[in-house]
Write a structure and sequence with these properties.
Blueprint lengths: L27 H16 L2 H19 L8 H4 L7 H18 L4 H20 L8 H23 L6 H9 L6 H15 L1 H9 L19 H20 L2 H8 L14 H17 L3 H18 L9 H21 L8 H18 L4 H14 L21 H19 L1 H9 L2 E3 H7 L4 H14 L1 E3 L5 E3 L3 E6 L2 E6 L7 H20 L4
Antiparallel strand pairs: 1-5, 2-3, 4-5
Helix pairs in contact: 1-2, 4-5, 5-8, 6-10, 8-10, 10-11, 10-12, 11-12, 12-13, 12-14, 13-14, 14-15, 14-16, 16-17, 19-20
Length: 517
């Protein structure tokens, strides 16, 4: 088995008690930031809010708070009229900065949970009359799920816990409880009526996607867009728990074959397709996984240069590499290269061409490669249950990952046993059962069982109940003859010619730059 991955909980090891840090000191630049941000939120100036959230906050963090937290909410509250909702939003950003730059204490993890509870309670049961950028609303849901995942991993490492930490875990046993997390996400989906809004949009009775979720009639977009992104959050949580059917069911109201609000934020777009593709991979829906990975990888290839200055850029590159690894797995189990664009296929061969060739051998080395790629590219699975404090304390943070890896490798092993069937089906258009049984060193009853297993393993049941084949080679048995049906796709010449035209234009531009004497 490959070396189990380590869970990343924070980018830096520094603690919040950094030398010289005074939580009550508010620099002038921070005063100006919170005053202007508060004013823009009250005025519903989404453009300015977005600029301050995406640019100013990141710039100040890099320049002034690289190794310390931002000033405390109590210190900045007087500059924003002690506005309760703004203070909740500020604390949400405060904790997000803490998780990204430092290593939060258990007390801070619990406080962050309390802040999310208060913030979501206001959104669900209060009157929220503001418009926030989709990027910020996505980051709220994304960070909420991330902090839940990080807390589960932190709690599962029991051996290193102090007596004080164990006492806190006992006292606050409802903090980051899996039912609480799922209930908040589900409540946001239901209270926002986003599923009904998307249904009415299909009938032309509502505009949501066309306006990117913003309300141009003076209302608020917060509840609706949080509800929308919560469906993606539910998919992610269920993938972390290993419940792929339920995760895909939660995402069903969003048509991922079309552009939508989820594509308006690059992080949301990538997270959606990564978890959607992974869930389909684990459910043996290889064609669907390949199709979606191909689309998103092509999109990232064409657009990643526009996100180089974005704080999400490193995460975009990481997910890009992980999805190439998942695509390599999917194509090794279901060799349908025709579904992949030539640009993506070229990148894939460059990264994993040699490994994919070895993965097709179906031996111990191939299993080790499947193990390696899965361990690198899979989500950071969690065990959501609290530890037993009465028994000897043990670490169980790797248990969920090991279980999912074991299930995946078991599936791979079953696929390996069927490798011989596909090899012969690729060679023959018709072959008698007796001849095939002789080639495979089996008797006819066992061969029929193997062929039935091949049929089962190359077909998957989709969410709508349809049974779809993943096989590039299919067959049917006519009396004692196996008749092969090989799918043939039309060759795509357009993509090739477009790439050559772009290359030619580049060469012509280079020639024009050359100054002849």
């Amino acid at each position: 088995m490959a070396a189990p991955y380590e869970y990343e909980e924070g980018g830096y090891p520094q603690q919040t008690d950094a030398v010289g840090y005074d939580p009550n000191f508010v620099p002038d630049s921070v005063k100006s930031f919170v005053v202007h941000l508060y004013r823009h939120i009250r005025e519903k100036n989404v453009y300015e809010i977005h600029q301050m959230y995406e640019t100013s906050f990141q710039t100040l963090s890099e320049r002034m708070f690289k190794e310390t937290p931002w000033p405390s909410v109590d210190a900045v509250a007087p500059y924003v009229d002690n506005d309760h909702v703004f203070c909740l939003l500020y604390r949400e950003m405060w904790f997000r900065h803490l998780y990204a730059r430092l290593s939060p204490t258990l007390r801070q993890r619990i406080d962050s949970w309390d802040n999310y509870c208060s913030l979501f309670q206001v959104v669900l049961h209060g009157v929220v009359n503001m418009q926030l950028p989709n990027q910020w609303l996505w980051d709220m849901v994304d960070e909420f799920v991330y902090q839940f995942q990080a807390f589960c991993q932190y709690r599962a490492k029991m051996k290193s816990k102090t007596a004080e930490e164990i006492a806190l875990l006992r006292q606050f046993d409802q903090a980051w409880n899996v039912y609480g997390v799922l209930n908040f996400l589900q409540a946001l989906v239901e209270k926002s009526t986003i599923i009904q809004i998307l249904e009415r949009e299909k009938e032309g009775l509502e505009e949501f996607t066309a306006t990117d979720g913003y309300d141009y009639s003076g209302g608020s977009n917060v509840l609706k867009v949080l509800g929308y992104f919560s469906m993606i959050g539910l998919l992610r949580v269920h993938c972390l728990l290993g419940d792929y059917h339920t995760g895909l069911k939660c995402l069903r109201p969003i048509d991922i074959t079309q552009q939508g609000v989820y594509t308006s934020v690059i992080g949301s777009h990538i997270t959606t397709i990564y978890h959607y593709g992974f869930a389909n991979l684990m459910l043996r829906r290889y064609v669907e996984a390949i199709h979606e990975f191909n689309k998103i990888l092509l999109y990232i290839y064409k657009t990643k240069q526009y996100h180089q200055k974005s704080p999400q850029y490193e995460q975009i590159l990481k997910k890009n590499e992980q999805m190439y690894a998942l695509l390599a797995i999917a194509l090794s189990l279901c060799p349908q290269v025709k579904l992949v664009e030539e640009t993506v296929n070229s990148q894939l061969r460059e990264k994993y061409g040699e490994k994919m060739a070895r993965m097709l051998r179906y031996d111990e080395e191939a299993s080790a490669l499947y193990d390696e790629l899965f361990s690198y590219a899979c989500p950071k699975f969690i065990t959501p249950s609290a530890p037993s404090f009465e028994e000897p304390l043990v670490n169980y943070n790797q248990d969920a990952y090991r279980l999912q890896l074991k299930m995946f490798l078991y599936e791979v092993k079953q696929q390996q046993l069927l490798a011989g069937v596909r090899t012969y089906l690729k060679v023959y258009s018709t072959i008698s059962l007796g001849k095939l049984a002789n080639y495979m060193d089996l008797d006819e009853p066992n061969l029929r069982a193997v062929l039935m297993t091949y049929k089962h393993k190359t077909h998957a049941v989709y969410s709508d109940g349809k049974i779809i084949s993943n096989a590039d080679v299919d067959f049917y048995i006519d009396e004692d003859m196996v008749r092969v049906v090989e799918s043939k796709s039309a060759k795509k010449y357009g993509d090739y010619f477009l790439r050559q035209i772009v290359k030619l234009e580049g060469i012509m531009t280079d020639i024009d730059r050359i100054k002849l004497e």
